Amino acid sequence: MERPRHQGMAKNTNMRWRLPLVCLLWEVAMIVLFGVFVRFGPEADAHWEEEKQEMNLTSDIENDFYFRYPSFQDVHVMIFVGFGFLMTFLKRYGFGAVGFNFLLAAFGIQWALLMQGWFHSFKNGKILIGVENLINADFCVGSVCIAFGAILGKTSPIQLLVMTLFQVTLFSVNEYILLNILHVKDAGGSMTIHTFGAYFGLTVTRILYRSNLEQSKDKQGSVYHSDLFAMIGTLYLWMYWPSFNSAISDHGDAQHRSAINTYCSLAACVLTTMAFSSMLQKKGKLDMVHIQNATLAGGVAVGTSAEMMLTPYGSLIVGSISGIVSTVGYVYFTPFLESRLHIQDTCGIHNLHAMPGLIGGIVGAITAAAATEDVYGKEGFIKAFDFTGEYRTRTPSIQGGFQAAGIVVSLLMAFAGGAIVGGILKLPIWGDAAAENCFEDDVYWEVPEDEESDVYHMHNPDKPASP
Amino acid sequence: MERPRHQGMAKNTNMRWRLPLVCLLWEVAMIVLFGVFVRFGPEADAHWEEEKQEMNLTSDIENDFYFRYPSFQDVHVMIFVGFGFLMTFLKRYGFGAVGFNFLLAAFGIQWALLMQGWFHSFKNGKILIGVENLINADFCVGSVCIAFGAILGKTSPIQLLVMTLFQVTLFSVNEYILLNILHVKDAGGSMTIHTFGAYFGLTVTRILYRSNLEQSKDKQGSVYHSDLFAMIGTLYLWMYWPSFNSAISDHGDAQHRSAINTYCSLAACVLTTMAFSSMLQKKGKLDMVHIQNATLAGGVAVGTSAEMMLTPYGSLIVGSISGIVSTVGYVYFTPFLESRLHIQDTCGIHNLHAMPGLIGGIVGAITAAAATEDVYGKEGFIKAFDFTGEYRTRTPSIQGGFQAAGIVVSLLMAFAGGAIVGGILKLPIWGDAAAENCFEDDVYWEVPEDEESDVYHMHNPDKPASP
Amino acid sequence: MERPRHQGMAKNTNMRWRLPLVCLLWEVAMIVLFGVFVRFGPEADAHWEEEKQEMNLTSDIENDFYFRYPSFQDVHVMIFVGFGFLMTFLKRYGFGAVGFNFLLAAFGIQWALLMQGWFHSFKNGKILIGVENLINADFCVGSVCIAFGAILGKTSPIQLLVMTLFQVTLFSVNEYILLNILHVKDAGGSMTIHTFGAYFGLTVTRILYRSNLEQSKDKQGSVYHSDLFAMIGTLYLWMYWPSFNSAISDHGDAQHRSAINTYCSLAACVLTTMAFSSMLQKKGKLDMVHIQNATLAGGVAVGTSAEMMLTPYGSLIVGSISGIVSTVGYVYFTPFLESRLHIQDTCGIHNLHAMPGLIGGIVGAITAAAATEDVYGKEGFIKAFDFTGEYRTRTPSIQGGFQAAGIVVSLLMAFAGGAIVGGILKLPIWGDAAAENCFEDDVYWEVPEDEESDVYHMHNPDKPASP
Questions:
Q1: Do A40 and C276 touch (CB under 8 A)?
Q2: Nearest-5° angle of CA C43, CA B391, CA B356?
Q3: Neighbouring chains of B at 3+ CB pairs within 8 Å?
Q4: B22 within domain boundaries
Q5: Which long-range contacts (CB under 8 A, 24 or more apart) does C174-177 make?
Q6: B223:C450 CB<8 A
Q7: Strands A126-129, A122-123: parallel, antiparallel or unpaired by DSSP?
């Protein structure tokens, strides 16, 4: 079977030396840096027996591992299966979706352990890591997975690795500014992960604009089973989002509350997404693109406020609104962004992460500003917002202002960072494919014979064997 | 490509205004009711710091969140991925299986939080929720997912929402009668979830009987890959069932024991299912329908007794029997139910949930009746059956009698409720499809071009682009 | 549609009486043995209330259930979904991959509970089980799943059950020798699970060598969607491997440390796998076989040492090396093994489990030999290696020697056991398929009509209905 679409391939997409070089150099660098800097934190170190006595702990169950490991594993599934499979909806880019997501996330978590470690876990010249660092590394990489959604199908694996390198770095700087300088709360990452990641990715894809992308338009759609594979990703993201938003909250009531708020928000979001998906189609049929994506907006939109006293009904309101905004975005904004602003957003991250992330930041600012000692209790109030030490005198309304400032900082970092990184990725050395080969696994992957020809020709003894 | 099968479509299946209206009105109602009634329970509220001191707890790890959250997440996966993907076995109804299950469960858990809350968590005019409420809401919705299995492919999404509304209500009433009035034990829901849910669904599908359903018979089967998608659902249900049966058991040994009993029962069930699947086919070949479904009967059948001292060998016996009963049911009972009793049971829930649920109720009654202080220990005996307060004097044999009464009540509620709800669903206003369009996603979903035509026509530049 | 390939079928593959007989006899034997021997351990027994007082425990959270159950569930997913779906890459053997893996694992865990119970949990004539026994049973069966990978597609379900019976037995003996006689550490099973399981399987497949297997070569490859199904298995194995290696480690820091080491090793492994996959192909394209398998070698290779003070950078080094070894193995060793040594290794377990397992054993021996009180702390040192009682005087270098001896013992057990079991499986009574029918579900499964013919003929009313 001739594949005439490959004859026009002019760009050199051969990864044979470039990809191995980048991966191996990187891994060597990681080994050296880990060797110099990274050690086990006290709760993972064999000296824990002595540590326990010093901290007056009577049981191993007090180890942070038991507070956070189940949530960590859920987050881990969201990053690798959730994001990976969510992006398999394209009919001929399933390998790239799952495989490149796997590559960039495995690459990114190592760098994130270092970058975030230097900022947050650096003691006596060493980065001391524990389960919370693993969660934070996964979170950081989550923002790269989001950005990947915008450029899915149009970039080489090397471009993705270069983007990961820079984005993890910028993420960590932005996170440090928000959490440590502005003293902002953002346990589920509405600002640090979603707003930053999405606008970063949108800026990158704007800079990488391809005017002739309609040449691969026939491959930008889904097929029946690719839509089902994508639903695996959707559901794991949806189900485990309560773990995502509660994973690094304070022990006890804060983790508990975050999970409940997120559960409520996501449930409401499904209903409004279904409603608007049906309403905005002439024949009232549901669109899988909306179900796969907009149903998740409710998790994004309570990312900042879930650990606060948002209340279950507050969560329902936020989830309902975000489902509507996201679905409307898919129908009206995405085509507009592409045609007018030249932002080609493959997965529609503007609808799933950018707008709901902004909502999440704003809801967080309002919820913080509205906090009272009456609602939180005297001790709970101080604990919830860490109003201790130099922040002893901060009031809720001031906290709300800082939360709002966090949104602005995240946006600025995303735009500036995305523009610079986009420029770097535009260099003609990274091996990206020509427009007619976008959204096609065959460029970077050994792809087996088509299913159909195999079955139809199974009785044909002359057929060349599959690999 | 013409699709002549659609030309005969006479019924109006357009959801454009009906579905959005139902979803949005519903969500507004939920917001109002949550606003009036639902608040965080003490372990999820920011006042927990004070609560801890009052309850004399020394560690945050004593928060119920850490006892139950991992099990909650497993149950959550069972409801959304387990049931959702189990039903994707139909060749052209994968979107409906996963998508409508998603819709009805997200719809149902909100209502379940309220209904169950009014019955069980109502204090000073407020429903106080925590992680156990989330598990119970998922459980309640599980019974709707079971009923969905009977009518899969034959109903409109609005019918499913209407059914969910009523079934959750009836479930909560039945649960209240069993747990609070009869003081029955049923932590894994053999009676409340499986028996009730299955006979409810079977009654509904009986009332919705379609005499001309053979018109869509070609779509009632599976294809190779749809059977593999269904196995994802099967395995997640199978693997996480120990969490299901132990999720709301008492802390400590009861949760531990429930998981072990369920693990044993399920392992045995796989062997007897495989044995009978092979034995009942002329050529001795295994049937995927049995493997996908009957292997799970062992989890259903220990739903009541798993937290009791059923013992591992007792679990093997119960699991073995339920696998046999379920497989035999698929081969002989399902055709009989359809041809003689006009019960069209798409997924065979009679075999997977109804009969094993009855077995589970009976085994639970026997296990309770056989309980002795010797086996449970003096304190363990009282704790296991809550023989305190007004139930201080209840004996095991009396408890066994009440357990048996619980089965009867569940059956009556299911038949009566199913008959009424089935009657409501028969009204010609809900937009269900004509018989020839059953089991076909195209009625309610935007379905992408067929995979085959895409691949074959990929080189054809005149082909209209996919959505 | 005629299927001429079946006309040459000479062997009797009908399972109708043989498979049911084996399954049912087995299950009866299990019920009897469980009835005689298996009881709940103290933490799962209703007497736990009294036990708690005796052990002076103040909280139910001290029950081992809460330390290990989340890890158990992750391991459970790895065995059933991880291994099951990893093997679905073959285009026409998805039912067999998932279904037979399900069967043999459900069969094996029951026997493993007994065998391991007699060796490790036998008290006063009873085997007392708890969550740790469930994990160990899953582990034991994991070694059978590994061996299954070598003979995938070439054996009847009865052969698999017979192999499971013997392999579980030998596994338990080998495990007893290593853990109790040699006093070796191997929490993640580099030696007991991977080295033993893989060389056992390779020996079996060597004995079952089929000289004419090229007759089914057209079915030995993958198709596009079967490769995506396999990635579900890969990712769940990869994500949950930290739980695998930490599941039975000591409470506290050891579990925590194991998870971190494994996380790091796996991340590094992905990068070197991708690098070598691209480098070893002429056009630099990535090969799904490598991504699906070699990315997991990093988990195998720290199986022994993860709970030791391997350190994060040590883990990166081990993970990097194992990814390289494994990928090179797929490209060069597997063809060599088949052509020269007549070892037909369907899934390439030599690359994924055998070589990385050996690396894991060696790294464990070195890490143990290099242990010092300085690194572990005085108490931590004794606790990490159980240098108590009769092992009070054992030094790290002696421990290293015993660890190395453990590798040798595992290899010898695997070769000897594999040879004997392979000989048994060669008997012409088990119903394996002829060479031209290998890798074909149709032999043992009711397979639905081909997807393609269904879709194309959907408008044809004369088409016979699917089952």
A1: no
A2: 60
A3: A, C
A4: no
A5: C174/C409, C174/C410, C174/C413, C175/C116, C175/C119, C175/C140, C176/C119, C176/C120, C177/C409, C177/C413
A6: yes
A7: antiparallel
What is the predicted pLDDT for the residue at A11? 81
Q: Which residues of B touch C38 (CB under 8 A)?
A: 311-313
Domain-located, residue A433:
no
Count other Cβ atoms within 10 Å, centred on residue C10: 8
Are B330 and B89 contacting, i.e. CB atoms less than 8 angstroms apart? Answer: no
Task: Name the residue facing B23 among A271, A313, A383 (closest C-beta).
Answer: A271
Q: Please tell me the total number of residues recorded for chain B in this structure.
A: 467
SS3 for B16? coil
Q: How far is CA C441 from CA B202, B295, C289, in A?
A: 33, 20, 21
Interface test mutation site (partner A, options C57, C92, C260, max chain A beta carbons within 10 A) = C260
Q: How many structural domains compose chain C?
A: 1
Q: How far apart are CA A446 and CA A439, in angstroms?
A: 15
Residue A147: C-alpha distances to residues A141, B216, C401 (Å) = 10, 44, 50
Give the predicted TM-score (pTM) of the model. 0.95
Q: Which chains touch C (3 or more CB pairs under 8 A)?
A: A, B
Separation CA B197–CA B190 (nearest Å): 10
Our measurement of the distance from residue C418's CA atom to the centroid of its chain's CA atoms, rounded to an integer in Å, reads: 15
Given an 8 Å threshold on Cβ–Cβ distance, is A46 in contact with C91?
Answer: no
Token readout for C148 is: 């299954």
Give me the total of CB pairs closer than 8 Å, taking one residue from chain B and one from chain C: 255
Looking up residue C273, the CATH number of its domain turns out to be: 1.10.3430.10
Q: Are B239 and C448 inside 8 Å of each other by CB?
A: no
Which residues on C lie below 8 Å from A103 (Cβ)?
270-271, 274
Give the ipTM. 0.94
Range of the domain at B272: 69-427
CB–CB of B311 and C39 under 8 A? Answer: yes
Contacts of C157 in chain B (CB under 8 A): 274, 286
Spell out, as residue ranges, where chain A has pLDDT lower than 50. Answer: 1-9, 452-467
Q: Measuring CA to CA, which residue among C22, C208, C236 is closest to residue C111?
A: C22
Dist. CA B259–CA B246, nearest whole Å: 6
Q: What is the pLDDT along chain B (467 residues), one digit of tens a residue?
A: 334 444 444 688 999 899 999 999 999 999 999 999 999 999 999 999 998 999 889 899 999 999 999 999 999 999 999 999 999 999 999 999 999 999 999 999 999 999 999 999 999 999 999 999 999 999 999 999 999 999 999 999 999 999 999 999 999 999 999 999 999 999 999 999 999 999 999 999 999 999 999 998 889 999 999 999 999 999 999 999 999 999 999 999 999 999 999 999 999 999 999 999 999 998 999 999 999 999 999 999 999 999 999 999 999 999 999 999 999 999 999 999 999 999 999 999 999 999 999 999 999 999 999 999 999 999 999 999 999 999 999 999 999 999 999 999 999 999 999 999 999 999 999 999 999 999 999 999 999 976 544 443 333 333 344 43
Whether C442 maps to a domain, the answer reads no
Cβ distance A95 to C288 less than 8 Å, yes or no, reads: yes
In chain B, which residues have their Cβ closer than 8 Å to the Cβ of A285?
A: 15, 444-446
C235/A102 Cβ within 8 A: yes
Which residues does chain A have within 8 Å of residue C263's beta carbon, measured at their own beta carbons? Answer: 109, 134
Q: Is residue A416 part of a domain?
A: yes
Question: Tokens 């309560």 identify what position?
Answer: A242
* pLDDT tens profile A7-60: 444 688 999 899 999 999 999 999 999 999 999 999 999 999 998 999 889 899
pLDDT single digits (tens) C136-176: 999 999 999 999 999 999 999 999 999 999 999 999 999 99
Rounded to 5°, the CA angle A301-A304-A309 comes to 100
